[in-house]
Automatic annotation (TrEMBL):
<comment type="similarity">
    <text>Belongs to the glycosyltransferase 2 family.</text>
</comment>
<protein>
    <submittedName>
        <fullName>Glycosyl transferase family 2</fullName>
    </submittedName>
</protein>
<keyword id="KW-0472">Membrane</keyword>
<keyword id="KW-1133">Transmembrane helix</keyword>
<keyword id="KW-0328">Glycosyltransferase</keyword>
<keyword id="KW-0808">Transferase</keyword>
<dbReference type="GO" id="GO:0016757">
    <property type="term" value="F:glycosyltransferase activity"/>
</dbReference>
<dbReference type="InterPro" id="IPR029044">
    <property type="entry name" value="Nucleotide-diphossugar_trans"/>
</dbReference>
<feature type="transmembrane region" description="Helical">
    <location>
        <begin position="313"/>
        <end position="335"/>
    </location>
</feature>
<dbReference type="InterPro" id="IPR050834">
    <property type="entry name" value="Glycosyltransf_2"/>
</dbReference>
<keyword id="KW-0812">Transmembrane</keyword>
<feature type="domain" description="Glycosyltransferase 2-like">
    <location>
        <begin position="10"/>
        <end position="165"/>
    </location>
</feature>
<dbReference type="Pfam" id="PF00535">
    <property type="entry name" value="Glycos_transf_2"/>
</dbReference>
<dbReference type="InterPro" id="IPR001173">
    <property type="entry name" value="Glyco_trans_2-like"/>
</dbReference>
């Protein structure tokens, strides 16, 4: 990074008692093929050896800001955004790993597509034993908008956003534990976003993960996410029933689907809810009907895979005969094919 100008990218990493993994997370950023960046670390009152670990890195691109005490993730993120010097802000967590080409690929895409403001990718899930799975995020803006009606369409620590967009749209404290989902829901209404068809982030699953801690407060998390759902519905001019809102929350995540009680699966309520939601989507022009169908179809597919044997013969037949299910199956297959073809292209280019 040259001293006479601001960097192209600010990598924003909030940290709190991250001594165990922060070394590898920082190293993955310093080893990026794109080098015109600053790594802005906001320490939120760590009491372990986090700062000692950071002191071992002798790199002028690292800038450390310390909070006065433990102020929380939302405060730390907004503080980092206000102090960022880059044109783009790339999120990063203190226990994850970025692929060496991550910054280069995201920066190149946003530079070549000035009408796009957010850029993410797929991610690989891993723990101390190795890789445990992959997340294939949807790619295009229209489908991402449809996805926000249910859950977060981006990997939070794997997104790059234009700085001015985040300055104008800060994280909200009232959405703590789902602050990223709340932000994407608001942004994607007016700002274009995409995910690149590749796995640029390795997301660590551990007992120290913020989301894992949040899962211990299930009622609080349900309240926050349900409020985001209601905000999204209000934006579309739609008011769901209490039953529909509860089912919508359960269907918004794979874990929610797995936890559903047998009596909670009411296909008639679900079908009517999706129908009314689709009408609102069409009336407002929020997204294409095809995008909405593909997202709903993948939810139907998860219901079939994880709860098909529990829902009874009639519900099973209703689900199996739904055309949304088959659209979802096709959309899931095409999405995986896009990731696969990107990998084939990379291997061919190297050869």
């Amino acid at each position: 990074m040259q001293n006479n100008r601001y960097p192209e990218i600010t990598v924003l990493m909030p940290v709190f008692n991250a001594e165990r993994y922060i070394g590898s997370a920082v190293a993955s950023i310093l080893n990026q093929t794109f080098m015109d960046f600053e790594l802005l670390i906001v320490d939120d009152g760590s009491t372990d050896a986090t700062m000692e670990t950071l002191s071992r890195f002798d790199d002028s691109r690292i800038r450390i800001i310390k909070n006065e005490g433990n102020r929380g993730i939302v405060y730390s993120l907004n503080k980092g955004i206000s102090l960022a010097q880059g044109k783009f802000i790339a999120r990063m967590d203190a226990d994850d790993i970025s692929e060496p080409s991550r910054l280069m690929l995201q920066h190149r895409y946003l530079t070549n597509h000035p009408h796009v403001d957010l850029c993410g990718s797929g991610m690989i899930l891993f723990d101390d034993e190795g890789i445990i799975g992959k997340v294939y995020y949807n790619l295009d803006w229209d489908t991402l908008k449809a996805e926000t009606l249910f859950n977060s369409p981006f990997p939070h620590p794997g997104v790059m956003v234009r700085r001015e967009v985040l300055l104008a749209n800060p994280y909200r404290a009232e959405a703590l534990h789902a602050e990223d989902y709340d932000l994407w829901s608001r942004l994607l209404r007016t700002h274009r976003g995409v995910n690149l068809p590749g796995f640029l982030l390795h997301y660590r699953i551990s007992s120290d993960d913020i989301t894992a801690k949040a899962s211990k407060r299930i009622d609080e998390r349900k309240r926050i996410i349900s409020r985001i759902h209601q905000d999204n519905f209000a934006y579309l001019g739609y008011t769901p029933t209490v039953d529909a809102l509860n089912i919508h929350y359960q269907l918004s995540s794979t874990e929610g689907i797995k936890r559903m009680e047998l009596g909670d699966i009411k296909m008639e309520v679900l079908r009517d809810h999706f129908h009314e939601l689709l009408n609102s989507v069409r009336n407002t022009g929020y997204c294409r009907a095809a995008s909405f169908y593909s997202v709903c179809g993948k939810i139907y597919l998860k219901l079939l895979l994880y709860r098909g044997k529990d829902m009874g013969v009639w519900n099973f037949i209703v689900l199996l005969s739904s055309f949304q299910l088959w659209i979802g199956i096709g959309a899931a297959a095409l999405l995986r094919a896009s990731y696969f073809l990107r990998k084939v292209h990379q291997l061919t280019a190297r050869g």
